[in-house]
Each structure stands twice: as structure tokens, then as C-alpha cells.
């Protein structure tokens, strides 16, 4: 069974009990005020791999990934230094309505996830359509004494009422200083680390609530949606490492305080992605979108493959060179699979067990890819076995490795066996036999080229 690094417990653990047949997973979704860049998409690929690995073991995955279209305040000074709602800020900048902006970027995000072969979640609730859930959650927190309302209609969570606050990030309430949040010092708070559950004011994107017209704080939506769509026992909660604090700390405090027990069993986080050695941002001009990759003539799934060259919880430096290399590998593997498809089917290679173990050992995708490269080059594994093995693991890789089947010329009878024999001869440094087999293949109309990664052929 899949084991992942639990940020809260500080160790690698099985994410499901023995015999479990269903995985309930929540993934923090996008704030739809701009295009998602490849760094954002890395978090969703990691969640997709979790899903694929457990499903391969016969476990049914039930996934909720929200859409934040209201409530997420700007903390990026290059957009708005005053902390405006991100969707409202984008709408003002683009001269469109907030709804138009949100739906446009939501659809763009959906297109990116489809291009990356990310399986669709069972639930994709929008924050703007889940206000009632949030109001109900806030009311319960007030009733249980975990929240308090101010005279202006604002509602705050009482951080000191949740004794285990900080277990995810390692922060301690007593060590937090005033102004550690975007909101800064707020005289309405009883304690400087309290956070807003409901905020009064402004003219757009507001709703009626028992304590006054306003809008929800960002952290409320995930707690409300998680409980509504997945219930009070959730196996895994995923997100980027930057969400550990304050978002996930606040989310955990809210959900657990309402229910009265630990709701999420495992909190799992993906690391940052750098591009050319720097964090992606508008100010540095190194934001790379999936559309930029396609415009460069690369397959979008080359991004998926490139990201799997590093473990999800390792910081990764992506470059155009690594993207081009991933694109070449992807095209080569598709060509190889199409070539191997012409050979008689054989059982899956024994190396499959080690590859499965790599995936289940904290998603060690670099090792899994290395083992697949070894399998590709091995002269001791029949082409039909390579074909079955690569297609078997494509259910986890999600690279559409069968895409070229039927698109490449068919080898003449006996040529596949000669190609395999020549690869074996080259590995043994038996150059006379290698040359003899090259000549034999040439007589069949098959022209061989030797490359650093092995031999290729054309007709």
C-alpha cells in the first residue's frame, strides 16, 4: 500500500489502513484569477499520482478539489498591496466582471488538467456556490465557543481555543508575532493570531449572514467543503508546501473544532518548483504556463514526465533544457512501445515488482523512471514483455505511451528479433556480430542508427 510523508507526524506512513477499499482525499484547488503556471500544476500532478497508485491496488478514490472564486485575499504586492480579493483585483485590472474572470480562468485550469492527463475529481465545488456551507460552519464554531463576533459583523476564530494549533507547520501560538498575517494588526481581535472567518464591507461578492452582510475568509471554504463532500473522516489532504501555514493550520483547527476529533488522518505537501533557479513570479519574468510549453513545440505531457523526474517533496529546478529532454524521452518511449507492439505478447517483466515498490514508497518516481529506462535498454527482456510492462505502468505514469501504435511503419517479419539480438551483441561489445546484424537488417530494409540511449530504426 502507498506510503507518504505526513507533514504533521514528520514521518512516512501508510495512507490507508490494511483492507481499506476507499480513499477520501481533499486537494486545495486553484484561486481562479489568473492562469496556473507549471509550478502550480505540480501540486495537482502529485495528487493525481496518489490517486492512480491507490486505484491500481483496487481502492476507489473519492476526491474533492475546490475552486476558490471568492475570499482569497491578495498577498502579492505586485497585484495589489492593500489585500483585495484576488478575483476582484483581476476583474478590475482586466475590465471584466468578477464572474467572467473566475469562469474564464477556471475553464483554463480545467483545460490544463486535461492536457496533463489529471483525472477529474468527484467533487469540484466553487466557493461562491458554497457560502451556505461556510455560514453553517461559522455558526457552529460560534456555538461551540471557538469563534467570536465583533460589533461590525466580523467573526474571528479564537486560536487559543484549539490547543494543538501548529502541529502541521511547527509554529507555536505564543511565538507568533502581531502582523504575521497579510491582514496585519487588527484591534478587533482578542489575540493577534486569531483569524477572520467572516469579513464585513465592500460592495461586490458579499452575502447575507446572521452577523451581517460580508464575505468568508479564505480558510473557511476548505473546512466547509471537506466536511460536506467527504465527511468527518478524511484519509489524505494534499497541497503545496506554502499552504502549511496559515491555510492548513487554520483549516485543521476549524474542522476539528466543529467535529470534535481529528478529521484528516494525513497531511501531505508537495515542494516548491523553481524555474531556471528562481521562484516563478511576474516580477522576474520567468512564469511558464502550459501553453508556453505547447507553443515551444513540446508535448504538454513532457511537463508531466519532467516533473516526475523529482520526488514530489523535493524542491525541483525546471528548465527549458529539462523540458526538451523530457519531450525527447516521451517521444522515444512512444516510438518504442509502437515498435514493441509488433512483437508477440509476453508476460510483464520481473522488474515490475521493483517499479511498483518505487511508486508505493513515498512516490519515488525518479527511481521508477530509472528502472523503466533500464528495462527499455535490457537485451534480456523480450520486446513483447517490454510492451506489456510499459503499458501496464502507463496507468500510473499517464503519458499516453500507446499514442504511436499504428502510426509507425511495421517491421518486416524477423526484424524485431534481429534488432533485439543486435542490442544484446552491443551490450556484450561483440562488434563483429553487431555489424553482421546491421547488414542483415539493411537487407530487410531496416536502417539502424546508434545513439547514446540505444539504437533506433527507420524503414
UniProtKB/TrEMBL annotation:
Its cofactor is Zn(2+). A motif ('HIGH' region) lies at residues 30-40. It comes from the Bacteria. ATP binds at residue 282. The keyword Zinc applies. Keywords: Aminoacyl-tRNA synthetase, ATP-binding, Cytoplasm, Ligase, Metal-binding, Nucleotide-binding, Protein biosynthesis, Zinc. GO terms for cellular component: cytosol. One of its GO terms (molecular function) is ATP binding. Binds 1 zinc ion per subunit. Zn(2+) binds at residues 28, 222, 247, 251. GO terms for biological process: cysteinyl-tRNA aminoacylation. NCBIfam families: cysS. This is Cysteine--tRNA ligase. It comes from Acrocarpospora phusangensis. The lineage of its organism: Bacteria, Bacillati, Actinomycetota, Actinomycetes, Streptosporangiales.
Amino acid at each position: 500500500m502507498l506510503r507518504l510523508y505526513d507533514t504533521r507526524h514528520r514521518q512516512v506512513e501508510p495512507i490507508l489502513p490494511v483492507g481499506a477499499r476507499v480513499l477520501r482525499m481533499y486537494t486545495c484547488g486553484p484561486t481562479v484569477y489568473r492562469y496556473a503556471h507549471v509550478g502550480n500544476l505540480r501540486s495537482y500532478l502529485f495528487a493525481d499520482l496518489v490517486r492512480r497508485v491507490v486505484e491500481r491496488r483496487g481502492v476507489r478514490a473519492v476526491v474533492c478539489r475546490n475552486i476558490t472564486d471568492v475570499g482569497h485575499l491578495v498577498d502579492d504586492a505586485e497585484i495589489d498591496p492593500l489585500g483585495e480579493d484576488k478575483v476582484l483585483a483581476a476583474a478590475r485590472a482586466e475590465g471584466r466582471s468578477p464572474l467572467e474572470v473566475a469562469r474564464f480562468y477556471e475553464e483554463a485550469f480545467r483545460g490544463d488538467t486535461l492536457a496533463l492527463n489529471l483525472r477529474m475529481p468527484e467533487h469540484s465545488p466553487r466557493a461562491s456556490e458554497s457560502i451556505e456551507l461556510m455560514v453553517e460552519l461559522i455558526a457552529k464554531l460560534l456555538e461551540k465557543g471557538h469563534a467570536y463576533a465583533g460589533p461590525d459583523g466580523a467573526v474571528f476564530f479564537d486560536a487559543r481555543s484549539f490547543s494543538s494549533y501548529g502541529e502541521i507547520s511547527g509554529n507555536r501560538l505564543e511565538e507568533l508575532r502581531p502582523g504575521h498575517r497579510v491582514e496585519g494588526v487588527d484591534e478587533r481581535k482578542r489575540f493577534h493570531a486569531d483569524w477572520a472567518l467572516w469579513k464585513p464591507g465592500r460592495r461586490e461578492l458579499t452575502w447575507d449572514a446572521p452577523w451581517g452582510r460580508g464575505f468568508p475568509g479564505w480558510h473557511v471554504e476548505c473546512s466547509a467543503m471537506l466536511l460536506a463532500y467527504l465527511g468527518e473522516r478524511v484519509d489524505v489532504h494534499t497541497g503545496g508546501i506554502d499552504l502549511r501555514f496559515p491555510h492548513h493550520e487554520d483549516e485543521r483547527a476549524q474542522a476539528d473544532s466543529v467535529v470534535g476529533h481529528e478529521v484528516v488522518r494525513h497531511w501531505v505537501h508537495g515542494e516548491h518548483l523553481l524555474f531556471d533557479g528562481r521562484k516563478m513570479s511576474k516580477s522576474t519574468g520567468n512564469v511558464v504556463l502550459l501553453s508556453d510549453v505547447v507553443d515551444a513545440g513540446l508535448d504538454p505531457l513532457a511537463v508531466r514526465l519532467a516533473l516526475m523526474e523529482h520526488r514530489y517533496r523535493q524542491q525541483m529546478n525546471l528548465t527549458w533544457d529539462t523540458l526538451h529532454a523530457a519531450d525527447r524521452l516521451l517521444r522515444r518511449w512512444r516510438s518504442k512501445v509502437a515498435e514493441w507492439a509488433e512483437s508477440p505478447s509476453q508476460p510483464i517483466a520481473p522488474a515490475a515488482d521493483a517499479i511498483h515498490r518505487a511508486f508505493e514508497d513515498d512516490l519515488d518516481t525518479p527511481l521508477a523512471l530509472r528502472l523503466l529506462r533500464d528495462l527499455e535498454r535490457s537485451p534480456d527482456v523480450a520486446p513483447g514483455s517490454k510492451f506489456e510492462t510499459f503499458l501496464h505502468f502507463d496507468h500510473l505514469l499517464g503519458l499516453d505511451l500507446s499514442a504511436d501504435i499504428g502510426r509507425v511503419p511495421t517491421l518486416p517479419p524477423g526484424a524485431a528479433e534481429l534488432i533485439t539480438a543486435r542490442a544484446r551483441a552491443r551490450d556484450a561489445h561483440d562488434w563483429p556480430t553487431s555489424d553482421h546484424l546491421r547488414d542483415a537488417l539493411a537487407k530487410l530494409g531496416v536502417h539502424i542508427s546508434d545513439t547514446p540511449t540505444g539504437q533506433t530504426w527507420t524503414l
